[in-house]
Amino acid sequence: MPRHRLDFDLAAGSVLLVTGPSGIGKTTLLNIISGFVAPISGSLNWEDRDLLSQPVWQRPVSFLFQEGNLFDHLSCRLNLYLGISPSGRVSAAEAALVMQTVTALGCAELIDRMPPSLSGGQQQRMALARALIKNDPLILLDEPFSALDSDNRQQASQLIREIAAKHNRAVMIVSHEREDAHALGADTLELKPA
CA distances (Å), 184 to each of 104, 122, 179, in order? Predict the structure, then answer.
């Protein structure tokens, strides 16, 4: 497994694109930030809080995994509601936010379908919507555009930019595509072999 010594800042309201060759540790970096993997050494702070001492469920993070993001036995609507509330119960304002998000991603007509009935790109947009509607200040997205065509990729990039700026969220995105940085208005952190 590659080892990296990284030193970077991610400000609220900004987007950071993490690039590099396959197997270099991009997903591992997101897993460390979210608490699923412990680093060998170092520190990790968010707004003057030590994240390494916090369990996964207490970290201020919304995470979109590469795959397996939706519960197959629940409708997409309920999957999204669970992103807001563990009970699946949401307020009228939260339900409106869900509809606004899926509309912006071009998948509102799919909200009452079951995930297995959707294409890979449709599932990815629903999973992205769930990550974006959470109220966490830090959003981690692992290859969020991999199954999207160019139009849907552009819509998703625009929504991510807007959410970062409008809601003062910090977004870190793993992507193999360097040109995503331009579409997102993002800074770039490139991981390279030692």
Answer: 15, 20, 9
Packed helices 76-84 and 120-133: angle between N→C axes, nearest 10 degrees = 20
The residue-averaged pLDDT of 32-59 equals: 88
User: What's the angle, vertex CA 151, arms to CA 148 and CA 154, rounded to 5?
Assistant: 85
Nearest Cα to Cα of residue 155 among 119, 183, 193: 183
The pTM for the full model equals 0.88
- CA distances 192 to 23, 46, 135, 149, Å, are 10, 25, 32, 28
Find all residues with CB under 8 Å of 124, minimum gap 6, and list them.
69, 144, 145, 146, 147, 148
Contact 48, 39 (CB under 8 A): no
The model's pLDDT over 156-181, given as tens digits with 9 standing for 90+, comes to 888 899 999 999 999 999 988 777 77
Pair 32, 172: CB distance under 8 Å: no
Structure tokens at 182: 């331009």
Helix, strand, or coil here: 147?
Answer: coil
Instruction: Give the span between the Cα atoms of 26 and 35, in whole angstroms.
Output: 14
Cβ–Cβ < 8 Å for 70, 86? no
